[in-house]
# Entry
Amino acid sequence: MKGFGIVGTGVIAAMHAAAIKTLPGARLAAVNDVVPGTAERFAAARGGEAEPGLDALLARPDVDVVCVCVPSGLHAEIGVRAAGAGKHLAVEKPVDVTLAAADRLIEAARAAGVTLTVISQHRFDPGLIELRR
# Structure
């Protein structure tokens, strides 16, 4: 069973939690947010355990994948830390707000040997599939 952690429990995090529930062999293990009480409310409603800090979430052996759902300018910062902890990454779009930050994140994932994906929820929409032909 693959365990997922969600960092940042704003609006888009609920979509991640719902998607995790649909994946065979996956479960939401832990969530974290910088706003006090937010992670606890999110975990109570959607599962997983609230962690008091990012380091605690990243130290969990039952978290294999981290969903980075923080504001865009923080994606690389959080992602680099998660990659350094050996966690695979699902990062909300955009990868980050500067090319330098995006490059740092990509390099950190390569160096750690973890998978990095950036959410592009429309990639399988019928119109886009037709355009690819």
User: Anything to note?
Assistant: The chain is about 45% helix and 20% strand.
